[in-house]
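Appendix B. One record, verbatim.
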Amino acid sequence: MHNDQFDKTILAMKKYAQEQHVPIMEDEGISFLTSLLVEQKPESILEIGAAIGFSALKMVRALPEVRLDTIERDDVRFEKAVEFIRDSGYQERIRIFQADALEMDVSLLENGYDAIFIDAAKGQYERFFEKYEVLLNSGGVIYCDNMHMHGMAAVPLSEIPKRKRTMIRNLSKFRDRMLDHADYESKLLQIGDGIMVCKKREK
């Protein structure tokens, strides 16, 4: 794979994301996530929330053997993701589905991923978990980004804009549930915007 082509695509993605206000992972967060994945060595990853395909490309680049499925709801972001993935030369290892992840037919996906990366609507993390954790292999890991929600998760709800309170409440509830979950060993890491790592206990 030509490094130049990949690097050019990543630069174009960063520029597009900045101009169009598309949230993509910060450099610190994505490099930390990929280092965790390199350590884990998953063969298959499911990503919920492709946006324009930035983190999907970073993950397959870091893991030369991995296969990755990713889901994106938004029409424009989906089209851009398809375009960027094609431009990068990594389209053989990434399948992208256009769907609302909460409504998607899971039978279209693999039955057994080593890792699931949740980076979509923050107020829906618990519902994504409920729907997709059945596809996670024993010993697999769920990674959740934006657990700090740009610092809002640590602020009293009364100080948060009303329109964001439900999302923050849901996110906090999900965090507490996972840190206490009998079937998962979870930890919240203070990297980037907060990454939670939840390892499914082997049975």
